[in-house]
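tool_call: predict_structure(chain=1)
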Amino acid sequence: MKTILALVLVNSLFGIGYPLVKTIVHYLTPAQWVFVRVLSSSLILLVFQGKALFSHPITLKQFGGLVLAAFLGITLNQICFVEGLYRSTSGHAAIINATIPLQTILLAWLFGKEKIQPLECLGIACGLVGVGILLQVQNIGVFNPFLKGDLFVLINATSYSLFLIFAKQTLESFSPMLALTWISLLSVVGTGWYAGWSLPLSTILHLPPKLWLYMLYLITFQSIVTYYANIWALKRVEASHAAIFVYLQPVIATILAYTMLGDLPQGHFYLSAGLIFVGIVLGSL
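tool_result:
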């Protein structure tokens, strides 16, 4: 029960973040926001875990695993997520991320980590068709203003699926908070390089008060609490089982995006969402 509650918490908090990030990137570039977020959360974690960080010996193999986890779980994941959300909508991004369970099942099978069942194959097929409808592949050649953003988010979802699969063994060697501190600190390098090591302090100081609250929420709850709870849960369940709970994100994100930003999904969004959710149900069976 504790594991289920942790995964529900993780994906509920992630769902709240979609419209908040969408609002922030009107003031900061996606690269700047990713760097600010990762650097800020890393400094907070370093304050509480600095002593444990240097007193816990790690092997070269473990360090390599942490580097891979940092790249897949935070660096590539966050860069593609924010760049995609900047160019698309909260609803689109959340629906694409809802394919993480199906992608995790498929990739875990391809890499020999888990077995795949017939119902899961059918679920993956439904999910792929749903994503295709969302990307409007049936209208190739017709301008789609969200296509580039949706593709970025799709890479983000795949990156997170690979993180769930390949980070599990490495993260089991550390406490959840220590593992999070390591991968967050390692991600500062990649996100800092991507942002050109630019910290827009003057812009941040002149942001409206509600933007400060948004950033505080994303830096603390979504960058620390969610990742901690996810790592804790990942030590107790299979990657594909942990991924199933991602289906909560589209529901929360779409409702908040409409109430906060007025983003009303188009007709094909609901067809896509329906197929993806059918795929998730089949995959979870």
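agent: The two ends are 19 Å apart (CA to CA). Proceeding to next step.
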